[in-house]
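Technical note accompanying the year-one report. For the benefit of new consortium partners, we illustrate the data format agreed upon in the data management plan: each record pairs a sequence with a structure-token string. No post-processing was applied to the example shown here.
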Amino acid sequence: MSTVGILGGGQLGLMLAESLDRLGQAVVVLEPDADSPCAQRRSNVIAKGLSDAAGLSGLFSRVDVATFDSENVPFEPLKPYAAKLIPSLKVLEVCQHRAKEKEFLRAGGFRPVSFRVVEANENFAAAVSAFGLPCIAKSVLGGYDGKGQFKLRTADDVARVPAGTWVLEEVLTLEAEVSCLVARDARGSVSFPVFENIHTDHILDLTVLPARVAQKWQDEARVVASGIADALELRGLLTVEFFIGVGRDGERRLYVNELAPRVHNSGHVTRQACTLSQFDALARILAGVPVVQPELHRGAWCMGQLLGDVWLAQGRTGGELGLDAWKDFPDVLDVYVYGKREARKGRKMGHFVVHADTPERAASRAVAFREALSR
């Protein structure tokens, strides 16, 4: 038995820890937030910050290998522990810095959305003018779920962007968003079925399997995702998010949006929909167990996000959720509540998975179930 460290104790870290438990691995988590899912449900949690020297030393002195549940972990404090980190520090450096990520993708021929990096010492308005409106300005560090992003349509929008280094991206005529997970170790790589992702207010709302996009896009996404994993010399799990849409040149293409070197919200559906979940895949790599090709179970599947809005609609401030409506939805196979004590609008508090005969039916039943919970 080995001991595995997880930097970050959110819901992703919790579900990964559960997969490691099933493989007989000991788990130590570094997480400062007493409200986090791991702090609520795991006993072996070091309650210190992710850049805290004593916390990092305490974690890495006890583990054989470690991973992270977010690419937004501090980079510099991890350098002394690079030998134990999966994915590698090199992968983390690329994926946590949007400008480096975009430049890596462009250099590798992986076709990101057209972009320009604007350094902090540049004239931002002039750079936007040269790039062209409309566009999106994204922060180079720390942005997720729409945070650190500005849609720029007018000069007034440009003037509201704070000083700093930004990545400008062209605005696509968006047709669909999909993602593909790749698990890779020294023996090779496997890829999961392509997920169709539906966002509301920049937050993942539904994930549908099989994806309702043309097979050619799915095949291309799996090839590109595996190619990116190879180029990064990945050991671990990589999620590649894609756009399908039309750019300024009028061409419909598959574009790489972002990379996440970890388990991913869109992959929650794999816990029921696939023969191997994303959490089990990464747990195997961390434990040195061979990864097998995941296959999709019969039928169609939809993961629905449960945000704090549902708790608030029920008059609850956090913790458990009233699930009386579940009895009317036998096609809902799993409701997973993370245990966070404080419910806030837009905060991810849980998720559920629906099984149906078609993707359309799975998605519609997911929406209906969540509406029933919110009454």
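Partners are asked to follow this layout when depositing records. The chain has three domains: 3-85, 114-170, 173-373.
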